[in-house]
Every structure is written in C-alpha cells, then in structure tokens.
Amino acid sequence: MAKVLMKGCEAIGEAAVRAGCRNFFGYPITPQTEVPEYLAKRLPEVGGLFVQAESEVAAINMLYGAAGVGKRVLTSSSSPGISLMAEGVSYIATCHLPVVLVNIVRAGPGLGGILPAQSDYLQATKGHGHGDYKLVVLAPSSVQEAVDLMYEAFDLADHYLTPVMVMGDGMIGQMMEPVEIPPMRDLDDLPAKPWAITGAKGRKPNIVNSLYLSEVACNANNWKMKEKYDEIVKREKRSETYGCDGEKLDVLIVAYGTMARICNTAMAEVVASDKQKRIGLFRPITLWPYPYEALAKEAEKAKQILVVEMSTGQMVEDVQLAVLGSRPIDFYGLTGGLVPSPDDVADKLRKILT
C-alpha cells in the first residue's frame, strides 16, 4: 500500500471516514481545527454529515443523539473544549452508546496556550465527568499510529458500547508524516445495532436514557457498567517496550505519545556514548486501561525508573501504582507548551546514571 504525506489532524479525519464514520459534530479550537476543517470537505464526498455546532456543549449532545440512532459518530476538540463536553460524555457512557472522541491536547490549565502538552492525562483516565464511568483512552506516538488507533477506536466503541478517546498532544495533530491509510470499511459490514432508536415497528420500543429515579435501577446500571469496564481491563491493555530484552536495566523510562519517541532518541544517545549502561523504555498505548502488570514486569529489571511527561507529572501516579514502592521513581517534565528535547532527557539520564 502506498504511503501519503499527511498532517496528523487530517490523517485522523481520513481514518475516521475509512472506519465507517459518516457523522461529525464539533467546534473549532487550536490545535485540532484541521480535523473538522478536513471533514467539512471530506464527509459530503461520501454521503456523510458535517455539523459545526455553536459550542462544544451542543456538539456532544448532537453526538449523543446520533449515537442513539446507531450511527458511527465522531467529535474532536482540544483540552478546554473536552472539559465542556464532560457532562454529555457521562450521559453517553451511562446510556451504553458507542462514540469516538479525539483530544489534541494543548497547554493548560484554563485557556492556557495553543502549544502541545500532555496535561489532560488525569482528566482522561481518572474521571472525565461525573459518576461511575470510564473512557477507553488510546495514546498514539506517531501519525501512522493515530490513523491505526482511530480505525480501531470505532470497533472498540461498538464492541463495548462505550466512549473511546484517542488522545494525542498538539505535535501529533500538527506534524506531517508519511502514512498508510487503511481501506474503506463497507458500511454493510459494520456491527448490527438492535438497541438503536430507529422506530419501533414490529418490535418493542428501545429506550436510551441516563436518568434513573429509582435508586435500585441506578445501582444496577452502575454495576452493569462496572462489569463492562472489568472486561475491558481484562482484554484491552496495550503497551510497547524498547531496549528491555536483557535481564537488567540501569534505568527504565516510562513515557507515552510523542514524548516516548523523544525519550527513545535520548536513550539511544546515552547508550551510544556509554555502552555499559542499560536503558529501556516502556510505552503505554492504552492510558486506560493502564498496563500495570506489564510495567511491573519490566520494572523488576530496573534499578530506577524515570517518568517523562509534558506535564507536572500526572502519569507518575499510575507508575507508582504499578511499582508499589519496589523501585525509586524520578520525574522529568516540562509544561505550558514547552517540549523536552532528546538532549534534555539525555542530560537527565546522565545525572541519574552518575
């Protein structure tokens, strides 16, 4: 399959179309505006619907309605916009509806800035909105992986009837890389949705509802959701390692997204200058469910762990849970739109190794 050069946001949009998405509802915000800009032109070409809503709140409720009638639906936004969508996402999750959200993270808190960051980690993984619900969160490290995970996100959403978020920082959205675009899904081959609201001719009415006035019914739905999340935790944890083949490591780096690529370069630089040093890299691909067991296994090899993020240290909490105090954990990060360079990370590694 031939590769094409595409900007991340545009590749994400095309991947959604190829995955069978024909309905987009969203609102422009930097650095993800190229997603709706691309889909505004592309969706009509395939008989789809593009709606620029008046706000992120309106967009997520449009998504709610379209998902309820069985459509593959997408929204994309960036950090403050995702916050505005939180209430609607909670409704969608409670109704067991499949939707895909893209968050191209920018610096915060507040309006922050338009430069890349990873400071939405806790928001995405530890309770985006109110109530007992979770988001499946996928974190690509390249434009190609963003395409592949977008394609997969719709299948995960349909299989588990749950919201799925593809979360990348602003660099993923704005960089251009050669990518292989997956084939166009046949809409006739998409999963059947017998629960959808399509008119109750010849069957009992379907009901899509997140309001439970009975505490017994609300309790039952919460535990139904919990069973689903337990199944996702059991089956969908994903991660990748680099340089972890040996039995011993001086340092194990833990990083995700594009920060993992930067750390991989830094690791190679340090090892090239001192071949006696053993450094490995662990990259979680699912931020929720977090691959605790896989990280714990790799951490057993290491004298020390270094977590690197474009934040003040949000993933550190999950690394601590995986390691349970068995190894010292150091942290290096920049925030506010500053991006650690390979040399920055290499300098930190050398300080740890001396």
Could you describe the 3D structure shown?
The chain has 354 residues and is α/β, with parallel strands linked by helices. The protein is 41% helix and 20% strand. The strands form 3 sheets. It has a 7-stranded mixed beta sheet, sandwiched between helices. Strands 9-11-10-13-14 form a 5-stranded mixed beta sheet, sandwiched between helices. A two-stranded antiparallel sheet has the order 1-8. The longest helix is centred in the middle third of the chain and has 21 residues, at 215-235. The chain has 2 domains: 4-235, Thiamin diphosphate (ThDP)-binding fold, Pyr/PP domains (Rossmann fold); 240-353, Rossmann fold.
Task: Give a summary of the structure in a few sentences.
Helix content is 41%, strand content 20%. The chain is α/β, with parallel strands linked by helices and 354 residues long. It starts with a strand and ends with a helix.
The major beta sheet can be summarized as: 7 strands, mixed
CATH fold description of the largest domain:
Rossmann fold
Q: Termini, distance in Å? A: 47 Å
Mean pLDDT, all residues: 96
What is the top-level CATH class of the largest domain? Alpha Beta
Q: Roughly how much helix do the residues carry, as a percent range? A: 40-55%
**Count of helical stretches:** 13
Main sheet: which strands, in order across? 3-2-4-5-7-6-12
- Tell me how many strands there are: 14
Going by CATH, the architecture of the largest domain would be 3-Layer(aba) Sandwich
Briefly note the structural class of the backbone. alpha/beta
The CATH homologous superfamily name of the largest domain equals Thiamin diphosphate (ThDP)-binding fold, Pyr/PP domains
Please trace the helix and strand order, writing H or E for each element. EHEHEHEHHEHEHEHEHEEHEEHEHEH
Provide the β-strand percentage band. 15-25%
> Measured on Cα atoms, how large is the radius of gyration?
21 Å
Ranges where pLDDT stays below 50 over 5 or more residues in a row are: none
* Mass-distribution shape: globular
Number of folding domains? 2
